[in-house]
Design a protein that fits this description.
Elements: E1 2-10, H1 14-21, H2 27-31, E2 36-42, E3 45-50, E4 55-64, E5 69-77, E6 83-92, E7 98-107, H3 112-130, E8 142-147
Length: 152
Amino acid sequence: MASISKEIVIEAGADDVWEVIGDFAAGPSRMAPGFVVDTRAEAGFRVVTFADGTVVRERCVDVDDATRRIVYSVVDGTVRPEHDNASMQVVADGERRCRLRWTRDLLPEELAAPMARAMSRGLEAVKRTLDGTGDPHPRETSSSARPSRRFG
């Protein structure tokens, strides 16, 4: 299993950013317009269409307003991992600054590199949309994609 973890700083209040990130039904279109071209909600699922033609069906696992964390899983579409579990969490870093942490566990491991690239492009779009500085080129504060250790 591969684990991907990325984090960026957004120059906006955590509550304002969470209002968009935590919107399971429409969040992708709101946070990354242009990168995401359509989002449709379907009773506990959403179908997200990306500008490159990729379409995924995602299941909502959890939305936790208290911790500003959303968890979801790709279950169908043009990308069909054997296993996918992703979370996005907004963490306050001052009154008008926050960090967005995006993590994903994924099988097969061969999907890790293309998924990590897509997540980086997605974070660029999120930064352009939500960041109060207008800086279109976010600097990821951390990024990793690695195979997880297997026990057995």
